């Protein structure tokens, strides 16, 4: 019955795929808002996707967050995807260390028996520091790898939840509220139509770089994130969505 449940989502997956012009949608049963095991399952589906799609010597850029941490937790090596390199998509973004892209990237690489590069940058950065830090040879090399990534995997957050979790200043909070920010991904905050309301100044992947990357996989679940997922998907930079039943049902109901 458990496996039958996976097939039951075919119609919902197709509906979301068409609505948001995605290449692939994967839905796992349950709602990660309610049950923690659903988030673990999201992680497993994301790892299965990577195992099916990665080949040798590829570069994978990853973001931070608890959903990506759930992916790292269950990461496993495969014969097909040896010698891969993991890079963090963006700098720290003010997350706790266990939820930072650097930590997740190193854990994924170790579990896949691959390699990794890290970005040691504080954030948010002043314009002046930003300009000089991107000229550092070590940072430059990692930035080059990030922009050439074969695959990007990232989380999507609710805008205000993320801003508070990352201890954004009161000025930023005011900007997000007045700009009606709904979602956050890669340190960018988006409104309902997918327009950028605010961007954290940190080094790494810029939104426009995503257009050059073949496979951009969003991993986000839970009914409470449906509006955020919709807002983020509106700007059309991701090609694959791995989500749960709770978010998927709410996403379609909203339309
Ligand atoms: O950028 C989005 C957030 O990293 C999502 O975080 O997976 O902990 O909700 P989360």
Describe the structure.
The protein has 255 residues and is of the alpha/beta class. The chain has helices at residues 2-7, 10-19, 36-53, 66-73, 101-111, 127-133, 137-147, 159-165, 170-178, 226-233, 245-253; strands at residues 24-28, 59-62, 85-88, 115-116, 151-155, 157-158, 181-185, 188-191, 196-199, 215-219, 240-244. Strands 1-11-10-5-2-3-4 form a seven-stranded parallel beta sheet, sandwiched between helices. A four-stranded antiparallel beta sheet has the order 6-7-8-9, sandwiched between helices. The chain is globular, with a radius of gyration of 17 Å. The two termini are 30 Å apart. The model has no long low-confidence stretch (mean pLDDT 93). Glyceraldehyde-3-phosphate binds at residues 63-67, 155-157, 162, 184-185.
**So what's the oligomer here?**
single chain
Number of helices: 11
Strand order of the largest sheet: 1-11-10-5-2-3-4
Radius of gyration: 17 Å
C-alpha termini separation: 30 Å
The overall pLDDT, averaged over residues, is: 93
What is the approximate shape? globular
Bound molecules: glyceraldehyde-3-phosphate
Query: What structural class is derived from the secondary structure elements?
Result: alpha/beta
Poorly predicted runs: none
Strands, total number: 11
N-to-C order of helices and strands = HHEHEHEHEHHEEHHEEEEHEH
């Amino acid at each position: 019955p458990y496996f039958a449940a996976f097939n039951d989502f075919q119609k919902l997956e197709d509906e979301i795929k068409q609505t948001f012009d995605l290449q692939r949608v994967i839905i796992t049963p349950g709602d990660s808002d309610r049950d923690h095991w659903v988030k673990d399952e999201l992680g497993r589906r994301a790892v299965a996707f990577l195992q099916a799609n990665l080949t040798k010597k590829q570069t994978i850029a990853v973001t931070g967050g608890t959903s990506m941490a759930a992916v790292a937790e269950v990461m496993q090596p495969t014969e097909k995807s040896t010698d891969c390199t993991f890079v963090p998509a963006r700098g720290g973004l003010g997350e706790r260390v266990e939820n930072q892209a650097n930590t997740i990237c190193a854990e994924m690489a170790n579990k896949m028996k691959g390699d990794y590069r890290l970005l040691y940058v504080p954030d948010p950065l002043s314009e002046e520091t930003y300009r000089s830090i991107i000229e550092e040879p070590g940072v430059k090399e990692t930035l080059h790898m990030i922009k050439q990534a074969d695959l990007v995997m990232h989380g999507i957050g609710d805008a205000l939840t993320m801003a508070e979790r990352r201890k954004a200043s009161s000025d930023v909070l005011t900007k997000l509220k007045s700009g009606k920010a709904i979602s956050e991904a890669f340190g960018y905050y988006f409104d309902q139509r997918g327009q950028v309301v605010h961007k954290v100044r940190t080094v790494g992947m810029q939104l426009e770089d995503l257009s050059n990357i073949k496979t951009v996989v969003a991993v986000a679940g839970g009914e409470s994130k449906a509006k955020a997922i919709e807002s983020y998907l509106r700007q059309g930079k991701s090609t694959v969505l791995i989500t749960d039943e709770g978010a998927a049902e709410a996403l379609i109901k909203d339309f």
